[in-house]
Amino acid sequence: MDDKTIKRPELLAPAGDLERLQAALDYGADAVYLAGKSFGMRSAPANFTNEELREGVRRAHAQGVKVYVTCNTLPRNPELAALPDFLAFCQDAGVDAFILTDLGVMSMAKRYAPHVAIHISTQAGIVNYEAAHAFYNLGAERVVLARELSFSEIAEIRAKTPSALEIEAFVHGAMCVSFSGRCLLSNYLTGRDANHGDCAQPCRWDYYLVERTRPDQPFILQQDEKTSFILNSKDMCMIEHIPELMRCGISSLKIEGRAKSAYYVACITNAYRHAIDAALAGAPLPEWVVEETDRISHRAYSTGFYTGKEPGQTPETGGYIRHWDIGAICTGTENGLIRLSQRNRFFRGETVSVLEPGSEPYPVTLDTLYNEAMEPIDVAPHATMTVFLRTDRAIRPGAFLRIRRN
After folding, report:
1. pLDDT tops 80 at residue 284
2. Measured CA distances, 55 to 22, 81, 171, 323 (Å)
3. Which segments within 64-202 are labelled E, that is strand?
4. Which residue ranges form the domains of the chain, and what is each CATH number?
5. How would you classify the pairing of strands 386-390 and 368-370?
6. Could you give phi then psi for residue 101, rounded to 5 degrees?
7. Of the ranges 39-43, 161-165, 268-272, 307-311, which one carries the lowest mean pLDDT score?
8. Residue-level pLDDT at 174
């Protein structure tokens, strides 16, 4: 990029467990965010026991990667008693920062883990420079901005806040239809508290309009014969807008997805790693980088509120777009053959796209396959079965072999 004042932004990846954390480390993250068994806004992923959290910090720091722990639920009174020990443990484990929303939790973090930095969660709804400055004065080193902001609004916040205050913003992943994740719909409809990480995602459900005296005659909310997903938001994808994000002064580019798979973390982290590096080098964005965002399961993409040019809703469907499957994961080599662990059925003669850390994906044709008995096979139909591949191309352990599906 031409502007010499622009700093290299951090690439921040999600980690729902140790497997996903390792994927983030392997594929180029500068930092990861994760949660313990309590106080995080995602209860669906496995999350980390104390022992796993300590191991995760050890692995990350060994590669120069930072670890941020989410404590961004809104805890009720009975939950507070467990916080001091957890906060102190995180400090002892070497956690680099807490991501917080609640002012009481922020106060406790300063008291019980004073050497851990404080980042203010997007759920705080920071949309102006005065709010950002206020949190800075309270001791925050970073604010995660509300997702409802445009490029120009973020640039103004950056210009009117202390340079020591870091700014983080989401660049990829699922979007919540409510303001900065503040939602009670799940509570009302299912009793599951979204502000405690247990959202049932009723915004993704399909709805009819029904008149009270005629409950057996639902009104369709579309002009065709479909129901309507009136609250269903698109996924965010900013892979083609990295230079604009950097010019806004954003310190950290955040990928959503602690409940997503290790493959999702690997694929999207790798794509954004190359997109950021290309922008810093002043090089055009490689076409394959954009294509990688279509090789995961996702909803229709949008630039969210950054540009204001696209609608954020996709009322036609609550489902995912899925053009690619993981055929197998490379687990090593044996007797000159590539050893694979099957994930979805694949056939001899198919061409797969291989995703390895730090490199552009490349094609490999599955010309010669063997089962564990070293018998030639035409198909790998059984889940997690071991398959051997003969190929001239060396494939690294941990690589994902992806198959295009029609």
Report:
1. yes
2. 11, 25, 28, 35
3. 66-71, 97-100, 117-120, 142-144, 166-174
4. 10-178+233-302 (3.20.20.70), 324-404 (2.40.30.10)
5. antiparallel
6. -120, -45
7. 39-43
8. 86
